[in-house]
Structure formats: C-alpha cells, structure tokens
Inverse folding.
C-alpha cells in the first residue's frame, strides 16, 4: 500500500506573543513576501494560510502584494483556511463569539477572494470545546485541523477521526502528530511521524497513527510562530523525495485536498465525542485584566446589537460600523496567546485597554440609542426610572439603582410600577462614600428585550449631611436574620467561621497554594502543590438587614494579601452571593475557593463554550464558561460565576481557581528573572452565586449565568 503524504507548506504566525502588535504586522508582510516569492520560484509549491487578519494587514500595508496573493488563490496555489479572524482560544469565548469569528473571517474571504473555506484550522490553540463541531458546521465547514492537546495530554485511538459534539454535530478532524512547523532543511522526520513510523525507533502512541485502511495523511512544514514559511531547501527536499521513500508518495497539497481524498472512507474512522483538553491548564487562571473585560465586552456587544435592532431609528450615525469595529477588536484579542494571558506584559496591557474601550463604546451606543428612543416619555417634575433588558434571556431578580438626593432627603420612598402599584424597595449603600447618596434595590421581572418604566415618589425635606446615617438606609425584618456569625432567610442559611463558610452542609474556604509552574503551567494537569495556607477572617459585621437583602462583610488576610468578603441573601431566594474584593500580592502562588462537599459527589455538569458538558470528577484543571452543578446523595449545589474561568472537581469537592501569579511570558525552560512583571497583582472583583439544593437543570443554570452576565440597564428619565 502506498500512502500519499499531503505536504502542507505553512507559516504559523502569532500576531502577538513574545513581540508586540506592530512587529506582528512586520512579520505578516515578510511572511507574505516569502510565500509569494516561493510560489513564483516553484510552480509545484502550494501555500496554506489561516486568518482574515493576516490578509487584511497585507491589503492595508502592501496592496501590490495583496494582488499577488489574490492571483495565487484564484490559481489554486494559495489556500485560505480556518475561516476565522485569528486562531482564537477555543474554550473561553462565548458561542456567539465563535459564530462571529466565522462570520467576519468567512465574510472577508467571500468579499476579497470569492470563496469560503470548508476546513477549520486552529493548530496552535491550547484546547477545544466539545461543541466546536457544531460551530464549524454552522459556518459551513466539515473538517478541522488542530495540534493541541497532544498525546499523551489527550489520548485518542488515531490522529484522524470523526469528532462529534454533545448535540450530535460532526466533522472530520485531524490532529497533527508531528506538529505544525519544521525549521530544518531535511524534513524526513516530519514525514515519518505523519505516517506513524519514525525511523529513530521511537514508538508512537495510537493517537499519532492513522486508522487502518487510510492511505492519505497530512505533514506540515515551514518555519513558524514568528512567521517565515517554507524554505527553499525544504521545498527542494520534497521535490527530490517525492517518490524516493518506499511506500510513500509526497505531494504538494493543501488541507481541503486531503479531506477530499479520504471523504469516501469515513466509515473507517473512529468516532470521538469529547472535548479536546488539556494543554497549558494555567492559561485559564491568569491575566484577569484581559479575561474579565473580554467577558464583559462580549456580553455588552450582544446587548448593543439587540438594542440597535430594537430601536433602529434612534441609533446614532454609523452605529453599525462602530459595532463592527468593536467586534473586530474583541475577535482579534481572542487570539489564544492574548486571551490566555501568555504574551508580553506590554501586549497584555494593550489588549486590556482595547477591551475596556470596547465596553465603553457599547455603553455609549446603548445610552444614546435608548435615550433618543424614550425622550418623548420624559415628563418634567415626574421622576421615572427605566429598567431595560436588551438580552435574549428574561431577567428576574434584584435591580440596583444609584440615587443622588443632596440637598434633600427622601422619606416614605416608593417605587410605583406601570399600574401605579408599589414595588418593594430597600435603601442600601451607594457605590460612592458621600453622605447624600443612596442606592436602591428592588425585585423586578423584565422580559427579554423588554423595558419597565417605574416612578419614584416620596416626601422630600432639606438634609443636613451631618445628620445622615446608615440607620436611615433600611429597616430590619424578621424574614432575613443577620448576626456576626450567620446570615439566613427562610430558604438558605450560611454560617461564618474564622477560616471557612458553611452553606447547606458545604464548607467553603479561601486556599492559597504554592505554584511553581510557568505562565502556561506546562506539563501540569492539576494544581496540587502544597498548601501555603488560607485566608483567616477575624470578624464579620452586619452591613444590611433590610426587608429585601441581608449582607455580612468580613475582612480576611493571608501574607501580604487581603479579601473583603460580602455575603448576601435576598428575601425569598435560595441563592447566596459571595462578592469578593481580593487585594492580591502573592508571587508564584494561586488562590482557590475550595468547596468541600458534605458527602461523596457522583455527578458534575459544567457550562462550557456552546452548552453544558458532563465532566469527570478527576481533579484535573479545566476551563469554565459560566457555572457548574455538583450532585450526590447530599443533593445538588449549583454555582454561577461568569467571571471565573478555571475549575477542578473530585469526589470530595470543587476548587475554583481565582488567581495565579507566575511571572509574565515565562517558560519553565528559561528560568526565572525576578525583575519580570508578576501577573494579576492588585485588586480583583468576583461575584459567585451559590444555590444549595438546586432543583433546576443545565438549561436553568445557563439561564442564570446569562442573566448574571447581562443585567439590565437602569437610568433616570426625568425632565
């Protein structure tokens, strides 16, 4: 049997990693010129390149070279693949973001080249959500090429298989057994690995071999990471050895040609229904300055899209163009080395700034659109409060609104709904520490895309700021019990101890572990280094005991770090909210919330990109995308935390990895430079909602996570 080896000339290019953005553009231009020159010199040669961002930089900086590329594409000698803007992290983004990666990437290919690709291509991404086959099929693709996780990080029965998502979508997938690049002139070793038979005597795992009966394989070559591409020596080696290796035929090719060649043999391929994890587990718990604004930007842009569709006549000029520009920033910064926090400190600062700017732009677009749309409902002298839910998920919960009273105080305060019926309301602390400011909380239901317009009424009198005290901000109620040791309503109770919290039999503690791994946590699948200690809370004070919400606050300390922990319960709700402000000052250590179960855990469902996923209770660190449910004989605990990105669980409990502090862009083989920046120093905020005795399903959990991440917008409509 002769095996046809499809030689894939490529240049993997990280636009940002150990260099900054401008150098990434320089690398694009140098790589594009090299590839074009090789195509001119060798008529047999074919070049493969992924990501619309690459082509866009050439189009902007060197239009003449862009025309050369267009001609090679038309001639079938340059193969655009991937169909995304960049090769993103394939775990942390929302499903809607992957849809837009394809929308913007494939859209560019269609406009500029008159084609779309059917081959997904993320050869350097660290892991891949189990729902990637659905994302690919929704984008018109039926094949996928990737490299990580490698064997033995992820055991497979062969390198070529049918990958099936939990909801039944399927693509043909190829995991590169020999990597995605080659720098030496003699690439015989890459060819031998691609057929599962290295001549150096090294035994390959089954996951690096072809299924029986398959007569085609892929072999990638070309200098990569910092661009480059196939060298003259490599191309000439292939020409010289096309028929020189017994049992092999080397052909210049592209991924689509390979998948076309094996299309009739899919019945020979094994079926894999699982996520592709794990490589570099540490990258999902590092650089919150990127991950948090990314998560918020995704949700805010979705809300902005809905608002613009709902009020098109009120949208500001060029709103759609501004929205596109904002999405392009988000999609670029989902590049795996950026989103995962493994780039230079300067590159991470840029990404964080761009994502914060996207959040601000989304807020601006929603603000001007909604104010223009509702301006005719403003009435002088009538204080209206608008609560708008530009989400596809109904909102039902507690709403917070700022209120400025100076120089007046408000007594007999009421909020009236659209039928002039009073709503329950509680005055709470304002976000500012100014005597005449208050916050208001009140329960409300707002349908998806819906809006509530309330009226605030009450008697006013002149306020002397010196007389304004916390006692004016709420009244006690026997429905919520709050002391320095416990907080409870009729459905849930939490007890506070020096080093832990107890909730429905679960015990929660804030554990600090040593973490001597590098930025990626290479060669590690779980964070189980020795415990350095845990945060201790000296005392708890009652901050609120109103009719709607009770709140305790505790101050914890460990080393040079501190935590302000706010525990909240709401009237009639089975949920306890942990609101944390962590002032983190540890180096090469990590912080976890350890949730110890009262009994053996037997089931686990995590929210991942695309939907829910049953996962093993094996203690391995995995990416998280919204929340999880843990079940056993003791009942079920649900956890909602859209801004917690990394988790592990075993039969005894779960650990949410909140923060890690390795040195930036530090690989274990490079040693330590103590003057390097340390990640995630300073203040960080977390909201973690816990539901003991949870009686919902995964769909309910997803709805709660989405509601948490996309709260309604609230503003005054007065005068």
């Amino acid at each position: 049997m002769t095996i046809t080896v499809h030689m894939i000339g490529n240049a993997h290019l990280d636009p940002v990693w150990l260099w900054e953005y401008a150098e990434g553009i320089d690398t694009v231009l140098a790589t594009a010129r090299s590839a074009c020159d090789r195509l001119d010199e060798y008529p047999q040669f074919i070049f493969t390149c992924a990501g619309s961002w690459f082509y866009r930089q050439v189009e902007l900086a060197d239009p003449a070279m862009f025309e050369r590329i267009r001609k090679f594409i038309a001639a079938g000698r340059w193969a655009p693949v991937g169909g995304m803007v960049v090769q993103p992290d394939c775990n942390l983004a929302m499903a809607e973001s992957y849809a837009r990666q394809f929308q913007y990437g494939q859209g560019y290919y269609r406009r500029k080249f008159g084609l779309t690709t059917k081959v997904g291509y993320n050869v350097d991404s660290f892991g891949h959500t189990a729902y990637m086959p659905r994302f690919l099929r929704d984008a018109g693709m039926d094949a996928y090429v990737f490299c990580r996780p490698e064997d033995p990080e992820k055991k497979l029965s062969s390198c070529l298989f049918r990958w099936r998502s939990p909801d039944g979508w399927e693509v043909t997938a190829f995991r590169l057994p020999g990597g995605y690049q080659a720098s030496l002139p003699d690439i015989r070793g890459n060819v031998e690995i691609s057929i599962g038979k290295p001549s150096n005597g090294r035994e390959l795992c089954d996951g690096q071999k072809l299924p029986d009966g398959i007569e085609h394989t892929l072999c990638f070559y070309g200098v990569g990471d910092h661009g480059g591409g196939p060298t003259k020596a490599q191309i000439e080696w292939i020409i010289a050895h096309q028929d020189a290796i017994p049992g092999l035929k080397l052909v210049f090719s592209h991924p689509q040609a390979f998948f076309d060649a094996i299309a009739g043999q899919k019945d020979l391929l094994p079926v894999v229904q699982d996520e592709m994890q794990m490589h570099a587990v540490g990258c999902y718990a590092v650089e919150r300055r990127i991950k948090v604004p990314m998560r918020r930007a995704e949700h805010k842009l979705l809300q902005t899209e809905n608002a613009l569709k709902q009020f098109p006549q009120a949208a500001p000029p060029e709103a759609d163009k501004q929205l596109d520009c904002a999405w392009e920033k988000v999609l670029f910064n989902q590049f795996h080395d950026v989103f995962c926090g493994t780039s230079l400190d300067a590159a991470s600062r840029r990404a964080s700034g761009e994502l914060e700017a996207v959040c601000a732009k989304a807020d601006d677009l929603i603000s001007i659109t909604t104010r223009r749309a509702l301006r005719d409902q403003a009435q002088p002298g009538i204080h209206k409060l608008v609560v708008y839910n530009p989400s596809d998920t109904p909102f039902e919960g507690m709403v917070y609104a700022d209120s400025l009273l100076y120089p007046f105080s408000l007594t007999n305060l009421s909020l009236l709904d659209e039928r002039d019926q009073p709503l329950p309301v509680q005055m709470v602390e304002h976000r500012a520490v100014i005597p005449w400011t208050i916050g208001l909380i009140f329960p409300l239901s707002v349908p998806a895309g819906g809006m509530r317009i309330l009226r605030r009424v009450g008697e006013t009198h002149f306020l002397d700021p010196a007389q304004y005290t916390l006692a004016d901000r709420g009244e006690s109620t026997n429905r919520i019990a709050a002391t320095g040791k416990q907080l409870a309503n009729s459905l849930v109770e939490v007890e506070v101890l020096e080093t832990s919290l107890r909730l429905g039999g679960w015990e929660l503690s804030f554990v600090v572990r040593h973490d001597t791994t590098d930025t990626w946590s290479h060669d590690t699948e779980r964070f189980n280094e020795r415990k350095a200690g845990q945060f201790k809370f000296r005392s708890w004070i009652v901050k609120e005991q109103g009719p709607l919400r009770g709140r305790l606050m505790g101050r914890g300390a460990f080393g040079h770090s501190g935590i302000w922990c706010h525990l909240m319960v709401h009237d009639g709700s089975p949920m306890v909210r942990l609101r944390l402000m962590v002032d983190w000052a540890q180096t090469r250590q990590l912080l976890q919330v350890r949730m110890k179960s009262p009994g053996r855990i037997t089931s686990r469902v995590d929210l991942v990109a695309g939907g829910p996923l049953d996962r093993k209770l094996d203690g391995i660190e995995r990416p998280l995308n919204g929340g999880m449910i843990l079940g056993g004989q003791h009942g079920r605990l649900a956890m909602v935390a859209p801004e917690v990105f990394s988790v592990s669980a075993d039969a005894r409990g779960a650990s949410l990895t909140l923060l890690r502090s390795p040195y930036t862009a530090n690989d274990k083989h490079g040693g330590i430079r103590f003057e390097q920046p340390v990640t995630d120093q300073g203040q960080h905020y977390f909201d973690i909602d816990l539901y003991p005795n949870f009686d919902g399903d995964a769909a309910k959990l997803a709805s709660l996570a989405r509601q948490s991440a996309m709260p309604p917008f609230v503003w005054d409509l007065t005068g």
The mean pLDDT is 94.
